[in-house]
Write a structure and sequence with these properties.
- The chain has 855 residues and is α+β, with helices and mostly antiparallel strands.
- It has four domains: 135 residues, Galactose-binding domain-like (Jelly Rolls); 114 residues, Sandwich (Immunoglobulin-like); 274 residues, Glycosidases (TIM Barrel, Alpha-Beta Barrel), CATH 3.20.20; 225 residues, no CATH class.
- The chain has 22 helices and 33 strands.
- The strands form eight sheets. Strands 24-25-26-27-28-29-30-31 form an eight-stranded parallel β-barrel, surrounded by four helices. Strands 4-3-6-11-8-9 form a six-stranded antiparallel β-sheet, with no helix packed on it.
- A hairpin with a 2-residue loop joins strand 13 and strand 14.
- Helix 6 runs parallel beside helix 7, helix 11 packs antiparallel against helix 14 and helix 20 crosses helix 21.
- The longest helix has 29 residues.
- The radius of gyration is 32 Å and the shape is elongated.
């Protein structure tokens, strides 16, 4: 849920300016140590290649090498910082003599500095941006050591993704994918790019472009410079060899790279689809003198699917996408994926009736892709270009790094049959010219390797200037109110009015309390989630738009949530399964819906009461007490009227040491600060469910412990009222002490109690926030415009307060007007300038501009 630009001033005024380095207890998730699963990731088995498995026991240090623990790789951990991994391994002499070695790390998050035998190998960046790197000769020996320094600390300017995001999966660190060395021949196939076109419904023309590399082939006496490469097509389900290409000759020198191409026409094929996931094996062989030197196996499928006018057509017939967002995470293993659990998830997704998945804001792992190929699930392949503001879009270095990341993903996954489209980013600023330039560059990067459609996702409905630069765009709906379906309808109409024809719904869902079974009248219940998903799904499909439900299972956000519905403050509970893969009620209903079956009846129930009554009750009690005191304390009442209508006379009386009883000052301070505390608490409580509010707070409060504490207080209004009252009360005293300090350098010396009186009574106009705070939450439920109105009232009254305290201090301290203006400007510049500098340093203004661009 996003709110309009008028709220930004208010949020800046309301946000707690607390900062610090994030710290949490280190939680380590080790993947089960099973027998290494063949054909699970990037490389398929081959008789000419040997895989040296580096999974298993490693020495791991979380304190920069002071202490090590014995842990099993792959693993992930919920912790941000530097972690050191060390392992010893052996290589047989025969392999050392006859092989070149490729280091494969399928997933390391985020940054990894790798050394082998104390030789620097590479710096690698990107969580699911797999590393596939040939090792230079003479680095490896019979006995070896590998050391990997991993740092998953993100920032707001350079990392992909950026830091402090709440809409995307948790930033688990670790070597969370398979890691191994691949021993290949001295002349070997490094990579293949398969392109194909359908000549008819069951005939396909294939072009296989192979990148071939060599090391020092002079060391191998039986190898010269002339080689042959050919491609054999095998039907995987039967093992039948269908076709062999013509043999292509090529020459290669030492330590060189060449490209060779095989062409084939394959007839009587069975095209890949979710209903018929038929796969073929391409066996690419390099031979010399009728002897096979290298054999590279590649799995692919041939998908006869076309994209036109926002619709997919499979074998000439329109194909309806039924999608769900999937997060690569589990409660047991974090992001160190257990292959059995992943396969079980994907099988269940398909059995419910979905035929497509998307991993929002991240790239699918090689195993997820292979499993989708095998089971028959389409995939929208994202990469983590998420919530990038305009200023970052203008940084050439960041864009270059992003494009490199994107190209690596495409080159790795291009041959996957399941991929329907390539994602170019999520919720970045689509209103800036820099975003156009980025999209043109990223689309060109895709087109160098593949012709499938490209998309981005956004929650921007009305002022997107980038939609013409992609094939279609995804719309993220953050609303969690079923009554907002009319707003959703209006937004769909607005999209069509703006000429946006090619779009899909990339995310819609609602977080709930997984223990709540109060019926759909309660917006945090399982029944409500079911009703919300069904009604939205019907709406989108009626508009002929394919959509992705968010999400398959509950998942952890990178930052703790302002409004958490679980004891785990990081957990987003919008899944149709729990994090432990327990099905929620919506699973059965969606299964009926997707398979065009009659839906069971939903229990209506009754809503659960919230804590908003605290604002009304506390406000009314304080108003009654204040009214009673004004009626009983005649002098107190007279001072209120005197200051309200003749503030200058009031200040002169204070200057002449006319006593304002201390308890009058304290009473007035209590009611003013209590009113402000109730008002601010009500505003926080209202916005606690808003996604934009969480994004702003995450950027300002970068300490997880403090954000969790704030979340607890916001959801418990009485606690927050008491806390804010104490903060405001102390703040008033600090202002008085500051003015008293200035008085030491003026001729008009004054007592602290008089300065305190001026300060307290100058803030009298803010007393109006006692009744405003009492009713603002209830009013805002009917019309959020009341909140915007209250911001303007707050700003105007704050300016009146500043004018009066400056005027009163000038009279009290006998400072001439110009000098007082000078001192006031210096003081205000220092105070507000410090706040602005903190926000600027944190990148808060960039985040605000990004949120504003969504409107």
């Amino acid at each position: 849920m996003y709110f309009n630009s008028k709220t930004f001033i208010g949020i800046l005024l309301l946000a707690l300016l607390i900062s610090g380095n994030s710290f949490c207890q280190i939680k380590v998730f080790e993947r089960p140590q099973e027998k290494f699963i063949p054909n699970s990731g990037i490389n398929l088995e081959s008789p000419k290649r040997t895989l040296i498995n580096l999974n298993g026991n490693w020495q791991v240090s979380f304190d920069e090498g002071s202490n090590f623990s014995n842990l099993k790789i792959p693993l992930s951990y919920h912790y941000e910082g530097k972690v050191l991994f060390k392992k010893n391994f052996s290589i047989k002499d025969e392999l050392l003599r006859n092989s070149t070695f490729i280091l494969v790390c399928e997933a390391i998050n985020y940054e990894a500095a790798i050394r082998i035998n104390n030789n620097f190998i590479t710096n690698h960046y990107g969580g699911n941006n797999s590393l596939y790197l040939p090792i230079e000769e003479n680095i490896l020996s019979k006995e070896n050591s590998i050391e990997i320094a991993v740092n998953n600390k993100l920032n707001n300017s350079e990392t992909i993704p950026l830091a402090n995001q709440t809409n995307y999966s948790c930033n688990f660190g670790g070597i969370n994918g398979d890691i191994y060395l691949l021993a290949v021949p001295k002349v070997y196939v490094f990579n293949c790019m398969v392109n194909y076109t359908f000549e008819s419904e069951n005939s396909v023309k294939i072009s296989n472009s192979c990148i071939i590399r060599s090391s020092n082939i002079d060391q191998t006496a039986n190898l010269k410079k002339d080689f042959i490469i050919n491609t054999i097509v095998i039907k995987k389900s039967t093992g039948e060899e269908l076709l062999s290409s013509e043999k292509t000759k090529f020459q290669i020198e030492n330590f060189a790279q060449v490209t060779a191409e095989n062409k084939l026409v394959l007839k009587n094929i069975s095209s890949w689809s979710p209903e018929n996931p038929e796969l073929y094996l391409l066996r690419i062989s390099i031979s010399y003198s009728d002897s096979i030197v290298d054999e590279f196996n590649l799995e692919c499928g041939f998908t006869n699917i076309k994209f036109s006018s926002n619709n997919y057509f499979l074998n000439g017939k329109q194909y309806i996408i039924k999608g769900i967002n999937y997060h690569q995470e589990s409660s047991k293993y974090g992001t160190a994926l257990d292959y059995r659990e992943v396969e079980k998830d994907l099988i269940y997704i398909k059995s419910v009736g979905f035929n497509c998945i998307r991993i929002p804001g991240n790239s699918a792992s090689p195993y997820v892709i292979n499993t989708c190929n095998r089971l028959g699930l389409f995939l929208f392949q994202d990469y983590p270009f998420n919530e990038v503001p305009k200023k970052t879009l203008s940084k050439n270095k960041y864009i270059e790094s992003s494009l490199e990341y994107l190209e690596n993903i495409i080159k790795r996954d291009k041959n996957a049959a399941c991929i329907l489209a390539w994602g170019l980013g999520n919720n970045f600023d689509v209103t800036a010219k820099e975003s156009k330039e980025y999209l043109l560059s990223s689309k060109d990067a895709v087109r160098k390797y593949d012709s499938r459609p490209v998309y981005y996702t956004t929650c921007n409905i009305s002022n997107d200037i980038c939609q013409d630069f992609v094939d279609f765009k995804g719309i993220n709906f953050f609303t969690n109110d079923i009554n907002d379906t009319n707003d959703i309808k209006n937004n769909l109409i607005l999209l069509n009015k703006n000429g946006v024809k090619s779009y899909f719904i990339s995310s819609f869902g609602v977080s709930i309390n997984n223990e709540n079974r109060n019926g759909f009248s309660d917006i945090y219940s399982m029944e409500y989630q079911t009703k919300f998903l069904i009604e939205c799904f019907k709406l989108f499909t009626k508009e002929n738009k394919y959509c992705f439900i968010s999400s398959y299972s509950d998942w952890n956000s990178t930052r703790p949530l302002i409004f958490s519905l679980d004891k785990n403050p990081y957990l987003k509970t919008d899944g149709i399964f729990s994090m432990d893969r327990e099905p929620k009620q919506s699973v059965n209903f969606l299964k009926h819906l997707l398979n065009n079956q009659e839906l069971p009846r939903l229990m209506e129930g009754s809503p659960e009461s919230d804590n908003s009554y605290i604002f009304v009750v506390s406000g009314i009690i304080l108003i009654i007490i204040l009214t009673s005191l004004i009626g009983k304390l005649r002098k107190f009442k007279e001072n209120i009227f005197k200051f309200t209508f003749k503030p200058k006379v009031f200040f002169e009386l204070v200057k002449e040491q006319s006593q304002i009883p201390l308890y009058y000052n304290i009473l007035l301070s209590i009611f003013i600060n209590a009113g402000l505390a109730i008002y601010l608490s009500a505003i926080f409580y209202y916005f606690r469910t808003y996604n934009s509010f969480d994004v702003i707070i995450s950027n300002i409060i970068t300490n997880d412990t403090l954000k969790i504490l704030l979340s607890e207080y916001i959801s418990s209004p009485l606690k927050l009222i008491i806390f804010l009252f104490f903060i405001l009360f102390v703040f008033q005293i600090l202002i008085s002490l500051f003015i008293f300090f200035l008085s030491l350098f003026t001729k008009g010396r004054s007592y602290f109690k008089n300065i305190y009186s001026v300060n307290i009574w100058s803030s009298l106009p803010l007393l109006i926030f006692l009744p405003i705070g009492t009713i603002i939450y209830k009013l805002s439920l009917s019309d959020s415009g009341f909140i915007s109105l209250s911001y303007y009232i707050y700003i105007i009254l704050s300016l009146i307060f500043l004018y009066r305290i400056i005027s009163g201090s000038r009279i009290l301290l006998e400072i001439n007007r110009f000098k007082m203006i000078f001192f006031s400007l210096i003081s205000l510049s220092f105070f507000y300038g410090s706040i602005l500098l903190i926000l600027y340093y944190k990148g808060s203004f960039e985040v605000l501009n990004l949120l504003k661009s969504y409107n």
